[in-house]
Fold:
Amino acid sequence: MTTETRPVEARPLVTEPHPYIPLTPDDRAAMLATIGVASTDDLFTDIPAAYRNPSINIPDALTELELLDEMRTLAARNRTGSDYACFLGAGAYHHFRPSLIDPLVMRGEFLTSYTPYQPEVSQGTLQTIFEFQSLVCELTGMDVANAGMYDGASALAEACLMACAVTGRRRIAVSERVHPNWLAVVQGYAHGRDIGVDMMPHPAPGATFVLSDEHACLAVAQPDFYGRMSLDAASWGEAAHAAGALFLVAAEPISLGMYRPPSEYGADIVVAEGQSLGVSLSYGGPYVGLFACRNDYIRQMPGRIVGRTADLEGRTGYVLTLQTREQHIRRERATSNICTSQQLIALSASMYLAALGPRGLRRVAELCYEKAHYLADRIDELAGFRVERDEPFFHEFVVRPQKPPSEINRALIERRIIGGLDVSDAIHNRMLLCATELNTRVEIDALVEALAEVSR
Amino acid sequence: MPANPTDRKYSKEHEWLKIDGDSATIGVTDYAQDQLGDVVYVDLPQPGASITQFEKMGEIESVKAVSDLFTPASGEVLEVNEKVVEKPELVNSDPHGEGWLLKVKLTDPAEADKLLSAAEYDAFTAT
Amino acid sequence: MTNLQSSTFNLQQPEPTLDARSHAGRIAVAMPHSDVPGAEAPPAELLRRDLRLPELSQLDVVRHYTRLSQLNWSIDTHMYPLGSCTMKLNPKVNDAIAAMPGFADAHPMQPAADVQGALAVVYGLQRTLAEITGMAETSLAPLAGAQGELAGVLVIKAYLESRGEKRTTILVPDSAHGTNPATASMAGFDVVAVKPQPDGDMDLDALRVALEEHGPTVAALMITLPSTLGLFDRNIVQIAEMVHAHGAQMYGDGANLNAMVGQVKPGDLGFDVMHINLHKTFSQPHGGGGPGAGPIVVKEHLIPFLPSPHVVVDADEDERWKMEDGSGSGRPSSIIHPPSSATYRLHDPERTIGRLGAFHGNFGVLLRAYAYISSLGPDGLRAMSEAAVLNANYVQARLRGAYDLAHDRTCMHEVLFSGRKQKAQGAKTLDIAKRMIDYGYHPPTIYFPLVVEEALMIEPTESETKETLDAFCEAMLQIAAEAETQPELLREAPHNAPLRRLDEATAARKPVLRW
Structure:
């Protein structure tokens, strides 16, 4: 660690070759001569001298070998699903990632290219985006999709802003059963544009939301944050449309392997967190937001869009299109300021869907469903626990234990089990448990046994 | 570039106005379409809408630019050129003819006095 | 065709879409049967009737994506001198680190106690970026540069509101990235453009007029340093003083930070908040358009308003001192083995602007930036920016006679030419860009900034060798010669790519956006 303040006039350059900076001393000398200056300092004279060459108080450089060692040590301080049984979901899910994804997605031609502004040398990226848009449309049942958003939460926030642009209204209605972190993101984006947010109480089964003609949209989650699949979604959509509002549905992509798509119950915009589709948990990101809508709203849709066209000789090719919606052209009047499409993550999701196909995706959804229901059934047999079953659920459900969930989770981690999310903040003394295809029967039985021990 | 027809008036926002009794046709000039490049989309007011001289009435987009359309006269929209909505490239190929945008019923034909003649518009775009 | 050097393209057949390759009854990866007793099926009305996804064999999928990848150019395959995008080396070790199971499988909702390694990295990067930029604190929550901008502007808005000030205008130079005005507008501000003077620096008189005209309604000046013209504004300190004198904040767009790291700290120059693109300066691969990350760094007075969550460390005073190696400001030198009392945790700043994403930021991207900075250290970071600036000035010196310079003065990490001379000869900047493909170089940024006619912005970065720069300059000189003698060669380029120029007008007129 270097801590001394360096003198302003002279400072040592890197004395040994560095793998990231190839210029050698003779390269430098020749280049400075071509430029016609004596030293590199002469290239920085526009910076006021008093502020030049500050000290930077960070540790000295590590070689690759040392760096890997340091990072392995840090990684070892995390307890993760790679060697613990994981029953935690709540918006990010531990799923199987087919082996073909990493070597393909990490190909340098995908990994280290920029946004495809030069289509002649970017057809790979452009075609994969076109395919991603198509896959998202198939999955959600919608007409058009964009190339991807930052994550599911920001996709929902952008969808709410888009609903305001479409309807010319400045209030939005959001179900209180949307993921609380997503709600917070929606509120932040809405606050920036001075748009009012009404948190809507969840209607009882058979009832619907009550909206006013001031609302630009009704946004709901299906399954909701607590894993429940409502039978009333179609009537919610009708309520939204009766008020002249758009109906926004936040879906879960694996669930769409077996459940009907939101297009069939009236959705105008569908968003989803794409992480479940073959993307590492990676402590919360990078992920990708799925965003699809009806044809009518395409010109208000935020984000990047790729279209199919032809080259001068009539050969099929792909280009970025409808770019006039975007910030680099429309500037302060743009639909959104978004520039990225989380392309690499969207590509992983496409590869996942291509690898599994309809049969595989349905199987994953069914495995999640069956394992979660097996777990729920076994927990119901335990004294001191009750599974809440007032509505059907997919792969996540709420459990009411006698002991505080935090205490239970502490005991579980000692048994190499990552327990469910403690949602006691929202509902008194409740835990949200999730099971996926990665949870074996042995793991599930071990969890049930551990819960039994803990509650004794 | 073909000469600007003398049978109509021009605005400094590069729209033309061709008066026929108490109604008129509106379009963008050849100069404007050349500046825009390939026109890909036009967003126009609906029939029945009222528009006000020199105020924004819609947008016209090329592949990499978007421009506001300002109306050269006040009135009520009678007809939108659906052929241009369907084939925006007509604005490029025939801006003064088939590429017209709107027919309007004029509120005040005297407003046209505030517009440029073909010769004045030629001079305006030459600078 | 003459004078064609080899391009690395292999002419090949187009790759059909997944859909066109699909054949019912195939699968690339099989999933197991259930090992638990079957459950009662969900109500039939909830179930979907059909799912039309493509069905492919494993070789189909592998070959499809491998072939598509071969249609792309990338840093790994070609020099990619895209101005303002900093297409530098993306070290492979960073990818290896992000893929370590201890990081890749960490769940974002796990209790802090179980993810101390991940939180240590986030904390370490927060301190490091603040130190490098001369600011007080960092938020790593923003998921991209544009979201960092939004967060930065919302932080300013919240700060002003907390002082009871209603300021509604943001000043933006008209050479700015489109995100700046788009962001200001998303945050509910009106945008007023300020013009540069001919030498590329901001016009102080125009700024003075704008500040006086909009007076107490000005919330901030958003400014990119070095500017989007590739120049270091020599009046930056004075600009900051003028802005502050009007009670407004200095917002820095850190897109061009690669020129400044180790040379000067934006915090010292008077910036109050700045966003940083980890995918530019700090080597996160661009991935064909994301993911990136757009951390913001702020001065002391803005800390309470930072996005949520933020990572803090609990340690007693003595040990905290030891962690920071006595310096009091830098990155803790002992993140790896912190004192036993130290624990990292997530924290919501007191008056936070709220959340930007579902979780804690793009952690995989943060890891790569952390690894990159660790690989360079303070001397390496300085050498990095110095080489980036040297390379750009070398390209400027070699091409000065052939192409017009937008501003003939020392540039920073990128050099901005104008293709007006070639345009007069019959080849526009777009044609020059397409011709570069024939020579095996990715085109630079073109037609940006908008304020320069026929702009052509070249950013070589520090990663290229002198040999590569020389070959690149030779190609550019040859293209300039071609523009003089046979401009049609440029107008019809590329000749040597899998596709010729594409019909973007039809794509926009009759959008086909899915199979």
Remarks:
- The radius of gyration of chain B is 13 Å.
